[in-house]
Design brief:
The complex is a heterodimer of chains A (about 230) and B (about 260).
Chain A lengths: L2 H35 L2 H31 L5 H34 L10 H21 L3 H6 L4 H21 L4 H33 L16
Helix pairs in contact in A: 1-2, 1-3, 1-4, 2-3, 3-7, 4-6, 4-7, 6-7
Chain B lengths: L5 E12 L2 E12 L3 E5 L6 H7 L10 E9 L2 E2 L7 H7 E4 L10 H11 L8 H14 L3 H4 L12 H14 L4 E5 L7 H14 L4 E5 L3 H7 L2 E7 L5 E8 H6 L4 H7 L5
Parallel strand pairs in B: 3-8, 3-9, 6-7, 7-8
Antiparallel strand pairs in B: 1-2, 1-4, 4-5, 9-10
Helix pairs in contact in B: 3-4, 3-6, 4-6, 6-7
Classes of the chains: A mainly alpha (about 230), B alpha/beta (about 260).
Chain lengths: ~230, ~260
């Protein structure tokens, strides 16, 4: 594959990442909106649209594999770029699964009322989606500096998660009849916390693309972490 | 690389063909019993560099070499060093398989005889050495029943392995390979690469290749040569093969291996 063709191909893959990212960000925000507004119809749409995200992931994977097979050899910066796109496409697909999980919880809760007004959970969703948005921007432009900053914001998501967790545990103690519904919300918060963790993985890939260094961000202090 | 024992050390090497400077100020250490690949665009002096290690460039009348190449701390360009001895210690395999028009057996035995390595020994000693060399070259099973047929009757890949057997029969320390698989099909190429890995336990190998995937697959270290505005070749980057092919330090290396020039 001649040089310009490979450049175009990589650009196309990055454009596709941006499209996939916007689908995933929308799914996260809307899944929490559906939960907050008890909009089961919206939750169903989000649940079903995850198949489109998965489909896109397979199409992109296929395109990447063909690119590797037809570009011989893929080396150095190109190699890091293409290998990382493969990884990031997988991360986006998994983040899409978290949104789908939240939508499913919304559907399962049916018409039962929320046990408390949702404030911290939508905040978590906004923070995580915003981190994702900027992490994908940094990935596409191979901006290692931005990629180093973004994971630090994971602390805010973690602290909201811990807050939600403590609050829900307290509610369950005082009223065991709501344990089911509280547990659902616990899962929602957990899913959002995982989104932010996967944003960190994307940032690690960006640093690899830009510098060739494979590194892992230290997990933030989490009061539930063992040891 | 620092932890390796270096068998060859090149200091300020310059090579001229008449007025044309082919290599400029090359400094490099070659680790023992490892495979070092030399890559770079056409005309950057890769083959010239390779041929410095066994003083083959001297066979070109206009060629002049400056600097020193130490083989175990002994400068192979010293006046008191016999180039024939250098070539016995530093063997070579060429791009095109070039067996002698003699039997398979004679191809391998030739170097042993001419170097007097069988002096006073029995024929069975020579037989054993031939067998050992052919085994090391992963050719024995294919030729053991036809040792007295012509070497030229073998396929290209087999001929190249015969040339490797011929090179290792005289127990050199270093084997130079100048694009040893570029005339072979993919299967024969992989066999040669496998063989290179195998024999690198006992020999130091320096290989020139245009095939970057081959360099990435087979070598431990890679040296990237390029040339300046006067077309004099120089060493741009040298390091662990994995590092060179995934994260080269020099932009010129990156540009070359990603197909931006050359």
């Amino acid at each position: 594959m001649p040089r310009e063709t490979l450049d175009k191909k990589i650009q196309h893959l990055l454009d596709e990442i941006l499209v996939m990212d916007s689908m995933v960000e929308t799914a996260i925000i809307e899944s929490v909106t559906a939960l907050k507004n008890r909009n089961i119809e919206l939750a169903r749409r989000i649940y079903l649209s995850d198949a489109e995200i998965n489909q896109r992931r397979f199409e992109l994977e296929n395109e990447i594999i063909i690119t590797i097979a037809t570009t011989q050899p893929v080396m150095a910066g190109d190699l890091r770029r293409i290998a990382s796109i493969l990884e990031v496409v997988g991360e986006l697909e998994r983040i899409g699964d978290y949104a789908k999980g939240i939508a499913l919880i919304c559907i399962r809760m049916g018409n039962e009322p929320l046990i408390k007004p949702l404030i911290d959970i939508p905040r978590m969703a906004e923070l995580a989606a915003d981190m994702l948005h900027r992490a994908i921007g940094a990935f596409v432009s191979a901006d290692a500096e931005a990629a180093r900053q973004i994971p630090q914001e994971d602390d805010q998501v973690d602290s909201l998660y811990n807050q939600v967790y403590r609050e829900l545990v307290a509610l369950m103690f005082t009223n065991p009849s709501i344990i089911d519904r509280a547990n659902y919300l616990m899962w929602v918060a957990h899913n959002l916390e995982r989104v932010a963790d996967r944003v960190t993985n994307i940032c690690e890939r960006t640093i690899y693309v830009a510098t060739g260094q494979l590194m892992e961000f230290a997990p933030s202090d989490d009061e539930f972490a063992p040891g | 690389m620092e932890n390796n024992h270096f068998v060859l050390s090149v200091h300020n090497l310059n090579v001229w063909y008449g007025d044309f400077r082919a290599l400029k100020e090359v400094n490099v250490n070659i680790p023992e019993k490892k495979i070092t690949a030399i890559i770079g665009p056409s005309g950057c002096g890769k083959s010239t560099f390779l041929r410095c290690f066994n003083r083959m460039n001297e066979l070109v009348p206009s060629c002049k070499t400056e600097g020193e190449i130490l083989l175990h701390n002994q400068n192979i360009y010293s006046e008191d060093i016999n180039p024939v001895i250098v070539r016995r210690r530093v063997g070579m395999v060429f791009q095109k398989p070039n067996p002698f028009p003699k039997s398979i057996y004679e191809n391998v035995a030739w170097g042993i005889k001419i170097n007097g390595l069988n002096n006073g020994s029995s024929k069975s000693f020579l037989d054993d050495l031939v067998e050992h060399s052919l085994r090391q070259a992963a050719l024995w099973d294919e030729v053991k029943d036809k040792l007295h047929q012509s070497g030229l009757s073998l396929s290209g890949g087999q001929q190249q392995r015969l040339c490797i057997a011929r090179a290792i029969a005289i127990r050199p320390e270093i084997i130079l390979m100048d694009e040893p698989a570029s005339a072979l099909d993919p299967i024969a190429t992989l066999k040669i690469e496998e063989l290179m890995r195998e024999i690198s336990r006992e020999y130091t190998i320096i290989v020139v290749t245009h095939n970057m995937q081959q360099a990435a697959r087979v070598s431990d270290f890679t040296a990237f040569f390029t040339m300046d505005e006067d077309r004099a070749g120089f060493l741009m980057e040298y390091g662990d093969t994995t590092q060179i092919f995934t994260n080269p330090k020099e932009k010129l290396t990156e540009d070359y291996i990603t197909g931006r020039f050359g």
